[in-house]
Amino acid sequence: MITRREYLKLSLAAGTALAVSPRLLMAADDAPMSLITRAIPGTTEQLPVVGLGSSATFSRVAGSADVDALREVLKALHDKGGHVFDTAPSYGASEKVAAELARELGITESIFWATKLNVAPRGGGKADEAAARAQVQTSFEHIGKRPVDLIQVHNMGDPDTQLGILKENKAAGRVRYIGITTTFAPQYEHLQQVMREQPLDFIGVEYAIDNRTMEETIFPLAQEKGIGVLVYAPFGRTRLWQAVRGKTLPEWASEFDASSWGQFFLKFVVSNPAVTVATPATSKARHMIDNMGAAMGRLPDKAMRKRMIAHVESL
To answer: Could you give the angle at the alpha carbon of 149 between the alpha carbons of 157 and 275, nearest 5°?
Structure first.
């Protein structure tokens, strides 16, 4: 299995991902390319369609003694106009380290902080309420922004208890938005139930060009209910990098201003109107810069999306 890092070393076509391409700055007609944003449903608040996640490599580096690379990643996110940073207490030291680095950089208030809540269940599958409240408080202390922008119940962890705690915090003005996440297919039916029954602002789910299950019922339901969508694993974890190993980016990708495979995959994801923000994780500033290129210029239309799917399926 090939990772993005390995792909960038192996593929000549990925050379564009190692530096800021001029295509990130200028459109085909030489006009400046604008940052693509999308409104949080039910509000006028706009978010750039690409953000930063903190699982995977980000989490591994956060747990090391040398976090300088993560400082550069957060700086790149901010400098390129990104706002959304997705984290979780279960991502090792990611939440704490990122918050410390953001304070050093002076960008705490400009970040849209999205963290999560999930404590180990007690008997009967119920979460320990006291532990859940303590976890929320720890996140407040780590992040240092009041109110915190978004907290979601992680992987459907006892929504009755934990979503109830988040609703209390939202009512008290300590959290602006609340939601729930899952990256496990067996939980999708339960997710839909919660989306129908609870006042959610966001959901967080997996979605990629080779993983389009969300299009069947969950995305339409999110649009119906006015729920924002954070997308995780838009590169199919490492599947898509394996698929394009040694493959040249098709020339027609320029028709939607994609100059790297990473932008190709991200532009497919964020061109779905149900998606609010995609949050790929990375520990490399050059990857963050390249990812933000997907939030600029044109997006593929419906016909182009079909062409993109067919191309990936043919590899």
So the answer is: 75
Please give the radius of gyration of the chain, using alpha carbons only, rounded to the nearest integer: 19
What's this model's pTM, rounded to 2 decimal places? 0.90
Structure confidence by residue, pLDDT tens digits, 63-92: 998 899 999 999 999 999 999 999 999 999
**3-state secondary structure at position 229:** strand
Nearest residue to 98 (alpha-carbon basis) of 77, 80, 81? 77
% of the chain residues with pLDDT over 90 = 85
190 Cβ contact list (under 8 Å, min separation 6): 156, 182
Q: How many CB atoms lie within 10 A of CB 33?
A: 17
CA distance 301 to 292: 19
Of 263, 255, 243, 260, the closest CA to residue 303 belongs to 255
